[in-house]
Amino acid sequence: MSLLLEVIACSTRDAVEADRGGAGRLEIVRDLERGGLTPPALLVRAIRDASRLPVRVMIREQSGYGAGSDADLEQLARYAGQMRALGVDGLVLGFLRAGSLDTVAMNAIVAAAPGVPITFHHAFDELPDARAALSELNRWPEVDRVLSAGGVGDWTGRARRLGELSRIAGPRTILPGGGVDEAALRILARTRGIREAHVGRAARTPAAPGGSVDRRAVAGLVAATR
Fold first, then answer.
1. Which residue in 2, 20, 44, 71 has the most C-beta neighbors within 10 A?
2. What value, to the nearest 5°, has the Cα angle with vertex 132 and ends 126 and 133?
């Protein structure tokens, strides 16, 4: 059974190319070179009109993993509510404060978009204890996916650690992401407990934040998951 491939899209063209290449889901962001920030609502609407794929939308307005000021958080919460009204398939977020989960920010977004599934993104890898972090995320049932690079080192070791995380993640899906390419996907596809993967640069031509999603690159990645 092949892995579902989630591809980052920054434009309608990206979304169409990912769809035609065989992707299974999109993560919509802007400013990929900054790690992915909140995209314009108009772009989300346009992508949903142009592609049949499920979409998850980034909720993040600054580099790093802080939510910002109270006013910034209110803005993020309003946007999350707009995305719920649009009927998106999920949100992507992760807020930290002083090296711990920012429960105030998490609660605000969940309250603004009740029932909308959430991917907790790479902020997870900044937390000191993965097991404890997974346990703490239990307070938000909306968090159904956790994005992780699996630590440092080669993909054999990273895949092993991701597989171990999947065994303690309960009902959540561990979503490998962070430098995932064809070679990584071949390893992840053989890793017990891993059912999905997340790609950014590897789906683009050139393979850089400023590149555009290329259906041929996506098709090659999809083939590597089988």
1. 44
2. 45
Q: Tell me how many domains the chain contains.
A: 1
Q: Strand 212-213 to strand 204-205: parallel, antiparallel, or no bridges (unpaired)?
A: antiparallel
The CA distance from 47 to 12, in Å, is 5
The CATH number of residue 70's host domain is 3.20.20.380
DSSP state string for the chain: -PPEEEEEESSHHHHHHHHHHT-SEEEE-B-GGGT-BPPPHHHHHHHHHH--S-EEEE---SSSS---SHHHHHHHHHHHHHHHHHT-SEEEE--EETTEE-HHHHHHHHHHSTT--EEE-GGGGGSS-HHHHHHHGGG-TTEEEEEE--SSS-HHHHHHHHHHHHHHSTTPEEEEBSS--HHHHHHHTTSTT--EEEESGGGEESSSTTSEE-HHHHHHHHHHT-
Domain span including residue 36: 4-224
- Dist CA 197 CA 219 (whole Å): 14
Amino acid, single-letter form, for residue 47: I
Tokens of 184: 């990584």
Nearest-5° Cα angle at 18, 17 to 19: 90
- The pLDDT of residue 74 is 97
Question: What integer pLDDT is reported at residue 1 of this predicted model?
Answer: 60
Whether the per-residue pLDDT at 10 is higher than 70: the answer is yes
